[in-house]
Amino acid sequence: MQTTNMADMLSEYQTNLKGFHTRINNELTILLYHGVTDIQSRGIENIQGKHIQASDFANQMEYLRKHCHVLSLDDFLEIQKGGDALPPKSTIVSFDDGFRNNYSIAAPIMEEHQVPAVFYISSGVVSTDIMFWVDILEDAINLSGKSTIRVRLDREEEFSIRNDREKLQALARIKGYCKTATAVEVDRIIQEIQEVTDVVATVNHSKNYQKIAWKELKEMHENSLFTIGGHALYHNILSSLGGDLLKKEIRASLDLLEINLQSPITHYSYPEGQSHHYNQEAIDQLKESGIVCSPSAICGMNSITEDPFHLKRIMVGFCGIPFPFWDPSI
User: Fold this and answer.
1) Where are the domains of the chain?
2) Deepest in the core among 10, 98, 163, 301, taking most CB within 10 A?
């Protein structure tokens, strides 16, 4: 299922987590976050909730500490290897991408509550002002003063962007197309979007766009609570690559982490992470590079026998998806 809008994601959430409050006693829950914020956004910046509010995140971590068995991924793999049963309410906390607020806001909250987490980092953006393509699209459309824009996707389309509702609709359509396109096509589109909106996207437009620095990431790596993993170089979709390009992408993303952190990296997650965003070739290349586990972003829970390269996660906050432990509807 291609989750390109809020309705799709909420429908998938409701379907795949049916019976959640019973299933948590013998299945693994992996929570997926991207960022934790303490700022008030403007316009459609973060309107989909990729960065959740710090107070909400703190309450969630306090709940996990008091009511769940919070594991690291290595804990889960050891339990799986030993053939033991999962403790009830076994839960893993994970982050994708590598935003600076993972270090400045999320990590201190997790330290306070002694909650372990794994951070999957797109290593090419660390200590840079490089923006992820989804954020470039969001920033350019959000800040544009134009009433309409024309963009060539699979065909030329005109979008009205006179208000936040229309801007969000345009963003959803363009993002949806880009998630099925090649990296070259995505590069063309983000360049075209900045031209037609008259906005040059920059991390200076919001703290939520800022990336973690190597010094900060190394500090987190040295904290026994936290595990660092790979997430491609620049968030490129692995299934859009192949052969030498795929091998080089994975190896380069890991080399950057291992050189700067002076430690082997054995964990990874797939950018975007839906079923069509990774394939067996990507899995084989990851294993060849020493990776032992790479979860998807497909919504769901996991049995003790689940393949570590097909683990499912629950994307908390994004597109209105609730913290599942507090949701009586599932």
Assistant:
1) 6-129+208-326, 133-201
2) 98
> Three-state secondary structure along 92-148?
EEEEEECECHHHHHHHHHHHHHCCCEEEEECHHHCCCCCCCHHHHHHHHHHHCCCCE
- CB atoms under 10 Å from CB of 141, counted, come to 29
Which residue, 9, 7, 74, is CA-closest to 272?
9
How far, in whole angstroms, is CA 264 from its chain's centroid?
22
For the stretch 109-162, pLDDT in tens is: 999 999 999 999 999 999 999 999 999 999 999 999 999 999 999 999 999 999
String of b and e for 227-264 (b: at least 16 CB within 10 Å)? bbbbbbbbbbbbbbbeeeebbebbeebbebbbebbeee
pLDDT tens digit string along 56-92?
999 999 999 999 999 999 999 999 999 889 999 999 9
For 103, residues 6+ apart whose C-beta sits below 8 A from its C-beta are: 212, 213, 216, 217, 219, 220
